[in-house]
Design a protein that fits this description.
252 residues; 13% strand; two-stranded antiparallel sheet; 5-stranded parallel sheet; alpha/beta
Length: 252
Amino acid sequence: MASLQRLLHQLVHLVLPNSCLWCQLPVQQADQQLCHYCIAALPGLSLGNHHHNALLLPAVWRGLKPVNFDLLHSLSWYQLPWSYWIRQWKFQQDFACGDLLCQQLAKACQQYLESGCPLPEAVCFVPISRERRKERGFNQAQQLAAVIADSCQLPLLELFHSKSSQHQVGLTRQQRRANLRRQFRLLQHHHPLPEHLLLVDDVITTGATIDQLCRLLRKHHVKRIDVWTLAITPAHLKALQPDPSQQPLTAN
């Protein structure tokens, strides 16, 4: 049945090919959202083929002090076209953009597996409140974590509860951290926790949310924490844009 569906999808693509979500020209493969040319031109982090830890980049770790995790893997800086796709998915429910981002993350997982880097024991994700999930319809971090768990054949754990739906837009780092200390708690039904966990979010800006969740994990004896995201805001831009990933797109 699956092979028949795949064949029908390919036949439809031959007649009515999808448009590339970046250049709008037809894509070459039925299961892709980007054409080959845009895939080749897609910007990313300059870490080299054998390095996967973005904490090696000064523009990253200077903006994340203190760092309570061991590895940060991200696909790109928070820049176009990534920023547009993330915000379209998150605020406009553009699921084609969501599919594209998940495809790129799955590809990054395959590269990570081929590198021979140590794998965590399980994958978890940044939670959102009940109000935020009702408003948005989904938790993008949870969907990204599911992609990683499926690609790497790892358990997916729901470890955290978010108490508040207060927006962090426009707040200083100190104000964000004060809010976040009261916002999250660790669910009790997963104790004891694995010693090596992978924590997933869509974007890291100030790192305050990730820091608070990592503090909770450290208190419960997690020895190594890897963090994966789609994008990171460089340190020199944090003062200029408090949290662009939390702001919906507005018309010009």
